[in-house]
What we know:
Blueprint: H1 3-7, H2 24-30, E1 35-39, E2 42-45, E3 50-53, H3 56-59, H4 68-80, H5 93-105, E4 112-116, H6 119-136, E5 144-148, H7 157-162, E6 179-182, H8 187-190, H9 197-215, E7 220-225, H10 241-251, E8 255-259, H11 273-277, E9 283-286, E10 298-302, H12 304-317, H13 330-346, H14 348-364, E11 372-378, E12 381-386, H15 402-412, E13 415-416, E14 418-420, E15 423-426, H16 434-455
Parallel strand pairs: 3-13, 5-6, 5-7, 7-8, 8-9
Antiparallel strand pairs: 1-2, 2-3, 4-10, 9-10, 11-12, 12-15, 14-15
Pfam families: Aminotran_3
Protein name: Aminotransferase
Cofactor: pyridoxal 5'-phosphate
Amino acid sequence: MDQAILNSPHGRDVRFHAHPQTNFRLHEQVGPMVIGQGDGVCIVDLDGRRYLDGMAGLWCASLGFSDRRLADAAYAQMLKLPYQQTFAHRSSEPVIDLAEVLLAKAPVPMSKAMFQASGSEAVDTAIKLVWYYHAAIGKPQKRKIIGRQRAYHGTTIAAASLTGLPNMHNGYGLPLPGFLHVACPDTYRGKAEGETEQAYAERLAAELEALILAEGPETIGGFFAEPVMGTGGVVVPPEGYFAAVQRVLRKYDVLVIADEVICGFGRTGAYWGSQRFGLEPDMLTCAKGLSSAYFPISALLINDRVYQAVADFTARLGGFGHGYTYGGHPVGAAVALETLRIYDEIDVCGHVQATAPALQGGLRALGNHPLVGHVRGVGFMAAVEFVADKAARTPFAPELAVAQRVSDAVKERGVLLRALGPTLVFSPPLIARNEHMSEIVSAVAESLDQIHAQLS
């Protein structure tokens, strides 16, 4: 019996399950943490140990792990109509209703919603529509897509190419040609001494314009951005950033796509991150919180300018050669509709605005700790970045794995967080209350002292 089985709860045979974003050889040694059930903001492993999930799964279980209404919505729809496609003039009532609700809630006027099963698929669809739209208006050479360093947009081939994280490219021969990246808008590491946030934003916009001019404006089709970068370390853009960037993009007729897969549905304190940071996208992707992760579903919202050009092109070509078997799944749409109703009933944005200070303020109070270089975040998104030298902002040697050690120590105290490089990130369920935030902050504070003592 291999070590993973020996280390797995109750001796379960785990040899046949490969794990994404995981060191396979390390996993063979340590085995998995197997979760048996969920309750509110907490999950329980097979040994009965209870954890407050400070990451809401993967930024997604926004209503926690035991919402009966969502389970009932899925069950009722499965009994009525468990599946129907949206190809070739078909649809179902939940899909029609969900599209109407999403368009009504969009941060800027949108014309149509397209449905997929994941955020990566929504991003891939948006990439293809950038190409399709420009071909439709007689500019097929506008194919290059600009993303940002440290951005995360998914793991499918195109979405991973757009992503600006080296571990998503290494070994795969990615990014594909035609995917470009500009600097991450990280005020902690990118802003010069004495530079204002507005000046930093203008400098980043000038860098973007320089890239567009170097590549040729006639070749640039789209620019993708998360309002707040999630997996890249919860990077909050500097003041005036999106206003400056969009000014450049509109000048050169480059489509703007907001990736709201993490930020959407109240996580930043606004219903959309675009509203919080002044993004006015031509297209918008959403997933995760769309169904509180109770069913795989994503949506791409498209404005009328893009839709009309695309619709004309489909008529000329005889159809739209794109779609997914499970895109517009009626069960997913029913669950998403119920999720959006609950958000309205609990005033999710008001709750996040009222509760976020307990998380953000509690973490910022740890800023003077010897291990902490920077604390940042907005709403129910936060990050603590660790440094070996606070004055020089020198990171710890990677082999020390400081963020992972803090995460492990926090886990010992019954809280689950995620280490991403030198950073510990936070994304609690949107139903978390002040006492949950205090529990998270307390576990982190104790863990910082524990790891600092070990390093010393």
